[in-house]
Amino acid sequence: MSATASSADAQTVEGQGQEPLTDGFHLVVDALKLNGINTIYAVPGIPITDLCRTAQAEGMRVVSFRHEQHAGYAASIAGYLTKTPGICLTVSAPGFLNGLTALANATTNCFPMILVSGSSEREIVDLQQGDYEEMDQLAIARPHCKAAFRVLHAEDIGIGVARAIRAAVSGRPGGVYLDLPGKIFAQVMDAEAGRNSLVKVIDPAPAQLPAPSAVSRALEVLKGAKRPLIILGKGAAYAQADEAIRELVEKSGIPFLPMSMAKGLLPDNHPQSAGAARSLALKESDVVLLVGARLNWLLSHGKGKAWGEPGAKRFVQIDIEPTEMDSNVEIAAPLVGDIGSCVTALTQGMGGNWAQPPADWIDAIEQRKQANIEKMSARLMNNSVPMDFNSALGALRAVVKERPDTILVNEGANTLDLARGIIDIYKPRHRLDVGTWGVMGIGMGFSAAAAIETGKPVLAVVGDSAFGFSGMEVETLCRYNLPVCVVVFNNNGIYRGNETNPLGGADPAPLVFVKDARYEKMMEAFGGVGVYATTRDELARAVNEALDSGRPTLINAVIDEAAGTESGRIGNLNPQSALSKKK
Question: Does residue 193 sit in the same domain as residue 216?
Answer without folding.
Answer: no
